[in-house]
Write a structure and sequence with these properties.
Elements: H1 2-20, H2 25-42, H3 51-66, H4 75-79, E1 82-87, E2 93-96, H5 98-104, H6 119-134, E3 140-145, E4 152-161, E5 167-176, H7 180-190, H8 194-204, H9 209-216, H10 220-234, H11 239-254, E6 279-283, E7 287-295, E8 300-305, H12 316-324, E9 327-333, H13 349-363, E10 369-374, H14 378-387, E11 392-398, H15 407-411, H16 415-426, H17 431-445, H18 447-454, H19 459-466, H20 468-477, E12 482-483, E13 486-487, H21 489-499, H22 504-510, E14 517-522, H23 530-539, E15 544-548, H24 555-558, H25 560-567
Parallel strand pairs: 8-9, 8-10, 10-11, 11-14, 14-15
Antiparallel strand pairs: 1-2, 1-5, 3-4, 4-5, 6-7, 7-9, 12-13
Helix pairs in contact: 1-2, 1-3, 2-16, 3-11, 3-17, 7-11, 9-10, 13-14, 14-22, 16-21, 17-18, 17-21
């Protein structure tokens, strides 16, 4: 038990390091896999790292949501519910929001000496302020433990231009300010007593049972009894679940969303490709689904599913080839990607996505066509074909995952894929926060830098996106996944959990003898080495396999002409 606790503390350090510096996500991946990969193999009941780690992942997600990314000077607009203050070059607090005054004890006109951190941390903070003031617009991240040694505080420091021409430093912390409207909402929704609301507040703020008892002047046994009552009223089973529900409710109190039709500003696509031109169709429950079309707009249709990375565009050379060959590429933008309205529930998620695809084919009056599915979207091609077999003439998939059924198959993957897919399968509660951190990293270091990290062990894949024409298509297409105007990390996490599971294996088996399926397999990819491929062939012998030893995950971008040639017999051309 002590060993597990020590492991968790190390993981917690790594979790918060990611908030300090997104580039350190790889260190979290390495540390996580070193400690928990053996547990997945040795313990069939392993389901993650428990509530403590999940609670901190939740708080990391909250922090990543709220950290300012622009250069506005309004402290209230920037910080929202996070404690924040502005410090002048002579290290005097010029202004502080209510949260900073109440929770950090800072006072305007004084030095920030009352911050609840130790002397060494305070000295480091002052050094960070001076660094931020020397680098205009550059954000600096730091992490400290507050003095009770039970909670972390992460701060972002950057320069602000004051109205009088002076440059000050803005400090935004991860310390969350509780607002009475939150307490009223939680009290009303769950019928909690005022005392119970105060305990929820303490838990959201990161206090342990011991510190809650000390803070409230109660015994730990009394606090545990009150927490059990809160669990019953909120229908939660743990502190992690309670914190998650509370934070979600707080966000609902603060914000509302709409689902009306939308207009677009064209993206800054490369001149040779042109911008993404999105169109929309209405869906039930006031949802809208986007799609794009390119190639020969009067040609034979192909439904192209571009992977959970949203690689909706193809290289310019291939777009020209589509026109020459008379192929019309129809690309749905799934719910939660781009400006397609998210699906608010995971119930019947597969049926809703399949219905969206069917509606898109109806929109174009297409009775039947082949599906070209890249990597993880083989899962969605399978789900759609199982529900609408009459509408699919064939499935051609490139570098697909399969419904993996052995833990060893996950352990053979490269670390990034193992980190995401294994935890999607065995520890799905923490996955959304891992994905959010990954997207935060990709935004910080750029898409090319992120691809280099993820495909570091695949020479074939690195060679593919080193081709500028290919990278232009990947960068432009993936704006529906990650761009200055959108992050699809929620939808991505939901989809990864789906295709990392075994349930869609029944749908795949259902296609045998009904729909021809061809899988192009790259043996230099990060997900499926030879041993795993041998197991897949034995389990699904009816699938036709095309093995490309010199290709990896990005096989389609290397072998586009060959894949299109293989699609030709299944095209439904107008007579």
């Amino acid at each position: 038990m002590k060993h597990d606790a020590e492991l968790n503390l190390e993981i917690l350090d790594r979790i918060y390091d990611v908030a300090v510096d997104p580039a350190r996500l790889e260190e979290l991946v390495d540390s996580w896999e070193e400690h928990f990969s053996p547990l997945r193999l040795l313990n069939p009941e392993w389901e993650g790292t428990g509530d403590q780690a999940f609670t901190h992942f939740s708080r990391l997600g909250l922090l990543l949501d709220r950290l300012p990314q622009d250069n506005h000077n309004d402290i209230t607009d920037e910080a929202g519910t996070l404690a924040a203050l502005v410090v002048s070059p002579d290290l005097i607090v010029q202004s502080a929001n209510a949260a900073a005054r109440e929770l950090l004890g800072v006072c305007e006109g004084e030095k920030p000496q009352n911050l609840p951190i130790d002397e060494d941390s305070y000295a480091a903070l002052l050094h960070g302020i001076k660094q931020a003031l020397r680098h205009d617009g550059t954000a600096h991240f730091m992490r400290f433990r507050i003095l009770d040694n039970e909670r972390f505080v992460v701060v972002q420091i950057r320069a602000l231009n004051a109205p009088n021409g002076q440059r000050n430093a803005l400090i935004v912390t991860s310390i969350l300010a509780w607002q009475e409207t939150f307490g009223d909402a939680i009290k009303g929704v769950f019928d909690l007593s005022q005392s119970e609301v105060e305990i929820v507040r303490c838990m959201v703020e990161g206090h342990t049972i011991k510190s809650i008892a000390a803070k409230r002047g109660r015994s730990e046994a009394t606090v545990r009894t009150q927490i059990r009552s809160i669990y019953e009223k909120t229908e939660t089973r743990s502190q992690a679940e309670l914190v998650r529900i509370s934070l979600s409710l707080m966000d609902m109190v603060k914000t509302t969303g709409g689902s009306e039709p939308h207009s677009y500003v064209p993206s800054d696509g490369k001149d040779i490709l042109g911008p993404n031109v999105f169109q929309s169709i209405p869906r039930p429950s006031k949802r809208w689904m986007d799609y794009i079309v390119y190639g020969d707009l009067t040609g034979a249709p192909v439904l192209y599913l571009p992977s959970d990375l949203g690689l909706i565009r193809v290289p310019a050379r291939i777009e020209s080839l589509l026109k020459v060959q008379g192929i019309k590429m129809i690309v749905p933008i799934r719910a939660g990607y781009g400006r397609s309205t998210p699906i608010e529930t995971t119930e019947n998620y597969e049926d809703l996505i399949a219905a969206d695809f069917a509606a898109l084919l109806d929109h174009f009056d297409i009775e039947q066509c082949p599906i070209l599915a890249q990597t993880s979207d083989f899962c969605f091609a399978t789900l759609f074909a199982a529900r609408h077999p009459e509408r699919v003439s064939a499935i051609v998939t490139c570098a697909p995952p399969f419904p993996f059924w052995k833990r060893e198959q996950f352990e053979r993957m490269d670390k990034w894929y193992r980190f995401i897919l294994a935890n999607a399968r065995f520890a799905p509660r923490v996955l959304p926060y891992m994905v959010k951190a990954g997207f935060f990293l990709a935004r910080s270091i750029g898409k090319r830098g992120f691809l280099n990290a993820v495909f570091s062990n695949s020479d074939a894949d690195k060679a593919v996106f080193a081709n500028q024409e290919v990278f232009d298509a990947m960068a432009l297409g993936s704006e529906v996944t990650l761009s200055h105007w959108h992050s699809a990390h929620v939808a991505f996490a939901c989809e990864v959990t789906l295709h990392a599971g075994q349930n869609w294996g029944n749908d795949l088996a259902q296609l045998e003898g009904q729909i021809p399926v061809t899988a192009f397999i790259g043996l230099d990819g990060p997900m499926m080495p030879q041993q795993t491929f041998d197991e897949i062939q034995q389990k699904y012998p009816w699938i036709e396999y095309k093995v490309m030893p010199d290709a990896g995950e990005l096989l389609l971008f290397k072998y586009w002409p060959e894949v299109l040639e293989y699609l030709t017999p299944f095209l439904q051309r107008k007579s």
